[in-house]
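User: Quick one: structure for sequence A, then sequence B.

Assistant: Sequence A:
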Amino acid sequence: MTTRNQHHVWRYYLEEWQSEDGLILSSINGKIVPPTNPKNVMVERDFYKLPQLTKDDEVFLNAFVEATGAEELKQIHRNFVDVLVRVVRLNEIIQSSNKTSDEEKTNAQSLVIEFEEKLQGGIEQDALPILMELRRKRTDFVTRDKDAIKFFHYISHQYFRTKRLRQNTGEALSEMYPNHDFSRLGNIICHMAATNVGSTLFRDRREFDIVFLENGTDIGFVTGDQPVVNLLGTEDGSDPKEIIFYYPLSPYLSCLVTPKEYRICTAEVSVKITDELNDLIAWHSQRFLVAKSDRALRHVVSRSSSTQLPAYHILDALLTRA
């Protein structure tokens, strides 16, 4: 059976916020909704479905690939684009043929719908042991090249796979190329961009630390449909020069992937810093926020009405603590 309801945030990751009865407390567009099963949260029908591709689309994708720096990455992207184009074109042929059975047409369409869904699932399964290690505040995996590759690949895809990033990318493409509708390529470009960023982080891994922030407050960390945010991101959405990824791991623990030069140390955060980090997650979220308790969710929602990027000195506070 084709998987039509597709999560744009990993269901297993979200389960860390579920209550004892297995339900998730969430808000949608600032409105708190009844508790529900994690399978119903941050999910959209055919979210990863491959778009129909024109010849102009193929030219653009190939140009994007060739603009990638390292030859190893170019080859990865060439293979990726080649396979997805073949999948899309094969489906078009099968659907238009009178000689193919209904079952063959269904299978071809399923592949178009599930192609990237399966890729994301593979990335998540590879990272599952690493996520478990992170939640135990262990980072030894970074010293093992294969595991380090999996981690940086995973964290980059958690940043780029979301609906917000993909829509923003599609809109940016529309503005850059008003004479061609490249907006449909947002998903594909984000997938390749995640691979590029993950590769860069792995290459420079000795220049980065993974730092844990512990939360002993009664508010706790929240997460949302943009679960990884860049603390050095820009308000106008332009490409930042540096990256400090902030990633809530549970209501009680989060981590930073940060350049060593910032010298941020593992710390138990205050209520003020908790609020500021949660505000950042809320500002970057598109629709969904998730919290461990009803009180925590209401507290964050009540603070998240601003349309401006939270003007807090989170890094200054963390550096001061260090």
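Sequence B:
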Amino acid sequence: MGIFSRLFKRKEELLDPADLSVLHTDIHSHLIPGIDDGAKTLNESIEMIQKFVELGFKKIITTPHVMNDYYRNDKEKIIAGLEGVQGELANRNVQIKMDASAEYYLDDDLERKIESKEVIPIHNKYLLFELPFVSEPIFLNQIVFTIQSNGLIPILAHPERYTYWKNEYSKYKELKDKGVLFQLNINSLSGYYSPEARQIAEWMVDQEMIELVGTDCHRLDHLAILENHTSRMPYCHKLLERDLLNKVL
């Protein structure tokens, strides 16, 4: 089944398009060109950022992947890439604030990176990290402890996409009890990733477990889906009524 057939699988009453400008800030995207699986060129990056402006965002905190065995990005590479994008935004008079952090993969080097202060926290306070999609990592509780013991607040990226927990919702509650914040991908509410991810996402919205949302934008079509299908995402409207942290970052 293709992406767009999944999007329309569930028949729902059409709503007005969601007002994404109330979010103010997107905190998960891949817009620094050439350093991960996001934007490939500077022009592609700027084109996506211009679409963020059209959607009403006032600020982007872009988060390139950091993976020890694949995307070996560090502070210097990320900041240099950010400055290049910021310079081009200024040249083209694109009116949006842009900052950078990273999306840290839970691998065997993440604990060392945290301990040695090699990470780039969001607002010097939050650390966005992601898990493998195949199975739950055995060091999950340890990395949460390490993040917190270094004075940071852990944000789990797109928890709804870890569908190995689809029949174990208690796992999410355990993480919440440990003080982990959840960042949901908005397009999960459309069924873009899978029906299971949408089901988990909607459950977490009902349980008021989501503190942050993100586009997880890698390509322009991610924003096109978001722009064109919020009228089919009642849980998007429900979520935007909440006091999400996006609004104050």
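The longest strand covers residues 126-130. Confidence is low (pLDDT under 50) at residues 3-10.

User: Thanks, that's what I needed.
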